[in-house]
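Revision sheet: structure tokens.
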Amino acid sequence: MSETEFHVGKARIRLVQGDITNMETDAIVNAANSSLMGGGGVDGAIHRKGGPKILEECKRIRAMEWPQGLPTGKAVITSGGSLKARHVIHTVGPIWRGGNRGEPELLAQAYRNSLRLAVKKRLKTVAFPSISTGAYGYPVEDACRVALEAVKDFLEKEDKLDEVVFVLFSESALQVYVDEAKEVFLKAIQMC
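Predicted:
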């Protein structure tokens, strides 16, 4: 597994190529759709591998908290079902519509709200996919800067997480994240 690592405060940030459903973190983040009922890509893979318990919990969340569907940028948590991760944090990223309809802020909210929920639940390790870059069409080059900066900003203010992992499915996506992370994290170090 190819891997690159950076630090923000006491937290370690890792960039890896792999399958997020195999991660042994406290939580993995699901790039969900607003229905929370599973779908394609990462969402479908998590629901398939995690088993029916995740779907049952998502149905309860829909019935009790979000009957109209989970809004873009919000996050909720379920157990990990049959996954190695103990929990799944479900968040809805924005659909790319050219970048002028609030997509960067909504994407940043999806990352921040997922991290806030992890801290609230006293989790220490979280793994993210590249939210919105699959079926929702957000360009990886643009999405990764938003993702990395949102996580960096959160970790600079909040020191309760030990590790955040970005799990990229393809080698090309990993390389885009690695190149951008060097700029985002090393620039922060040089400014200190």
